[in-house]
What we know:
Order of helices and strands: HHEEHHHHHHEEH
Structural class: mainly alpha
Number of strands: 4
Number of helices: 9
Oligomer: single chain
Mean pLDDT: 86
Amino acid sequence: MIWWLRRRGAFGLLPGVLLAFTVGAGLTSGVSLVLPSFLGNYAMMTEFSTFVAVVPGIALIACLERRMPPVERSAVRRVDTRDIVLVSGFALLVSAVAAGMSLGGSDALLCAARNNLLFCGLALGVWPLLGHRATLVPVFWLIQSMFLGGRSRDDPYPWVIVTEAADVTHAAVGAFAVFLAGILAFICLAPRTDR
């Protein structure tokens, strides 16, 4: 088990990402920017901490790409089950840390917690199909959500999720549903010998 944890980066990569996310989200909490809307009528205000929320999903793909198929194929214990627990546990830990930090009164950190689940779900869901290129999917989702604009002032399209306010229920439910769908796709689509 120790070799697997070392290989996946559980001692170096993931703690570093958690620390970077915590510091980055804390420093950018409450900082917003408005980018031009290319298709919608109204530009949307985006929390800067949303950019930080992409990092854990990218780290999970980097973690999974560090696998060694020849060695793991001959492993006695189920490495794929451990991968599932590691990536889903880390994504939930990062969101729990951001939600805990939001108790200080910042709604931006709740948005970062929600968006982290969305981005991790997107990345994990397409990783069996795209491999290391799966990191582009959450980045693309973030970019299109900012540049598509909104239906009206401070009212983004419901499916965008990323630019919604922290207290919007359908955004939280949607992000969690995408996360669960990503974990399910990760479980079903990735063959055991490739994990």
